[in-house]
Amino acid sequence: MAVKSIKEYIGEPRDSVGHFHGNQLLFVSWDRHLLFAAPFLLYVNPETRFGDVVSGPLTALLQPDPDAAAIDWNRVEWLKANQPWTPDFERTLAENGISHKDQLRFRTPGPNSLLNPA
Amino acid sequence: MDMKVQKKKLGMKERYRALTRDLGWEPSYRTKDELYPYVKYEGIRIHDWEKWEDPFRLTMDAYWKYQAEKERKFYAIIDAHAQNNGHLHITDARYLSALKIFLQAISPGEYCAHKGFARVGREFAGVGTQVACQMQAIDEIRHAQTQIHAMSNYNRYYDGFHAFADARDRIWYTSVARSFFDDAMSAGPFEFMIAIGFSFEYVLTNLLFVPFMSGAAYNGDMATVTFGFSAQSDEARHMTLGLECIKFMLEQDPENLPIVQAWIDKWFWRGFRVLGLVSTMMDYMLPKRVMSWREAFEIYGIENGGALFRDLARYGIRPPKGWEDAGKAIDHMSHQLMLGLYQWSFGTAFHSWIPSDEDMDWLSAKYPTTFDKYYRPRWNHIKKLAAEGKQYKNFGLAKLCQCCQLPTVFTEPDDPTLICHRETVYKGETYHFCSDGCQSVFEDEPEKYIQAWLPMPALFREQQGDIAAWMDWVSLRDGFDNGDYDGSRDQKHFKEWREIATSNR
Predict the structure, then answer these.
(1) Name one Pfam family in it (chain A) (predicted).
(2) ipTM of the assembly?
């Protein structure tokens, strides 16, 4: 069912990529590290190297978590659209197949300091 | 000599008939379908509009009499509040954060409800319905007005009240309530009745007005208590109207059942999400708390809601689809959302704060299975950062749910350590949701929700990420209206004025 209406009804997607001045939105979140209340919304250029997004804005945003300094990016497991996925840090977001409004999740092995095991 | 004959007074029923008899005329040169173009397209089948009688049969003269009496009382108390510096009789100025959210998010909703009822009062084809909806339209505009008047006294002394209408339209957390009402107002007349008559009046106002108004009383805010009482006496009538409409649809034709059930599923979930904001008010923002969000939900959600669905079961209605997930969320939602409101407090037109140890002990007593395990460690860490002079601000901004528009802060129903990630692709475009409930609402009517104005993407789309420009646009005064309560102007002023009022300084 795509909306009941009294005449033909066509919705225009408001947040399609063309509205973002050559950039795109990217969501990133660190699984089970809930100091960060929601996935981060990043505003990125698709020609940026994936590694630069990780070492730049993402690393900066992760700082307040006590486990942030211990992240070994070589051992991180990634998900894209909730499916296992492997990024190439040397290539751009576009070359990595990251499209507008994609959600990346990453998981790190090891303890989670802000979760009380008791 | 003529005898003076005592004119017989009309009873309530007769007066109501006199009020409505001329509204139900038979059209002569236009068809009924032309007069009422919106009654059929949703698929609801009505065979006899006469079967719906307004249970209250309220006539205009009776209405004016009751409401005028309430207005007189309301304004007498508001005047007394202003003249006696009522703004200093509250527990402390932290309490005002709850009021600011209410004014920014909910009062404009009352105004929307007024517009909606004025419209469906015209669109329904039955006389009883038309009159009842018009009465409710007047109630709703009165509620918006008295709420704004009650809170305007605080605006003279405290920050964060001055631009509530801009906040309503433009700030990220208020867009939750805004999208709820925009969705309702752009729905057909029958769906509107479920959205407002059932979800807003039944699910929301019970949980919003009763515990929240008790909170106002506990915290010494007589201005708010007064509008609460004034509005609450109308709500019983509104709930009855909503419920009558549901029963009417179900009694008119068995084909209506699946449509009504789908609307109940949708609007229960949408209402539950709006309550996320209310849960933080109850658990965190009242300096003196009446009951926890959990306790309120047990009484007004589970008990009252349960009774309602048992009552509707004879028509084939089952509890809404999201009912179980809602039950699983009640131990978590206020904490998850408040942690968000705190870390994005540079973008709110109210203050938030790190709960004190005493507050945390209260939360752990009220949420014995979840608070210490999941939430206290996070607050303690945030507290430690603040003590080191590194107050935590999350400049990552937030992913918003395409349906309810809340930041996607909620966890999996069965795993409170993992954020719930839901997404769907529609016509090549990806959309994200906070829950199965919101995803399902979207997938039923994708064409509607792809148009949603989401404040976080809009910050980049319309302002290219310029936060200062965004603050000007939403009328948010950085350093005054937002940020931590500790060190705020509200805190400083309240303390100073209270000392003057209670000493010989």
Answers:
(1) Phenol_monoox
(2) 0.97
Q: Which tokens in the block code for residue B408?
A: 């996607």
Q: Are B287 and B219 in contact (CB under 8 A)?
A: yes
Rounded CA-CA distance B421/B439 in Å is 10
**Taking the complete model, does pTM exceed 0.80, yes or no?**
yes
Within 8 A of B411 by CB-CB distance, chain A residues are: 34
3-state secondary structure of B505: coil
Inter-residue contact A24 to A101 (CB < 8 Å): yes
Count of residues in chain B: 505
Q: Given an 8 Å threshold on Cβ–Cβ distance, is A32 in contact with B452?
A: no
Size of interface A-B (CB pairs under 8 A): 150
Q: Which candidate in B397, B425, B454 is best for mutational testing of the A interface (most A CBs within 10 A)? A: B397
CA B93 to chain centroid, in Å, comes to 22
> Which chain A residues are closer than 8 Å to B461 by Cβ?
15, 19-20
Q: A20 touching B, CB under 8 A?
A: yes
Q: How many CB atoms lie within 10 A of CB B20?
A: 17
pLDDT surpasses 60 at A118: no
Which region, left, alpha or beta, applies to residue A110 given φ > 0 means left and ψ of -120 to 50 means alpha?
left
Reported as a single tens digit per residue, the pLDDT across A31-67 is: 999 999 999 999 999 999 999 999 999 999 999 999 9
Kindly list the residues from chain A whose CB atom is less than 8 angstroms away from the CB atom of residue B344.
37
According to the model, what pLDDT value does residue B86 have?
93
First to last CA, chain B: 78
d(CA B498, CA B505): 11
Beta strand pairing call for A24-30 and A102-107: parallel
Evaluated on CA atoms B433, B439, B443, B444, the torsion sign reads: negative
Q: What is the dihedral of CA B396, B402, B405, B409, to 10 degrees?
A: -50
Domains and CATH numbers, chain A: 28-107 (3.10.20.560)
What's the full length of chain A, in residues?
118
Q: B424: helix, coil or strand?
A: strand
Residue B402 and residue B422: Cα distance in Å, rounded? Answer: 10
Q: Mean per-residue pLDDT for B334-355?
A: 96
Question: What pairing do the DSSP bridges indicate for beta strands A24-30 and A40-44?
Answer: antiparallel
pLDDT in tens, A2-36: 788 999 999 999 999 999 999 999 999 999 999 99
CB atoms B421 and A105 under 8 Å: yes
CA distances in angstroms from B100 to B161, B165, B253, listed in the order given: 6, 11, 44
3 state DSSP class of B306? helix
Is A68 in CB contact (< 8 Å) with chain B?
no
Return d(Cα B192, Cα B333) in angstroms, integer. Answer: 27
Q: Which helix (H) or strand (E) holds B76?
A: helix B60-83
Burial bucket for residue B282 (CB in 10 Å: 0-12, 13-18, 19+)? buried
Distances (CA, A) of B203 to A35, B21, B149, B439: 31, 34, 26, 20
Query: Chain B interface, mutation test: which of A8, A19, A26, A35, most B Cβ atoms within 10 Å?
Result: A35
Q: For residues A113 and A66, what is the distance between their CA atoms, to the nearest angstrom?
A: 7
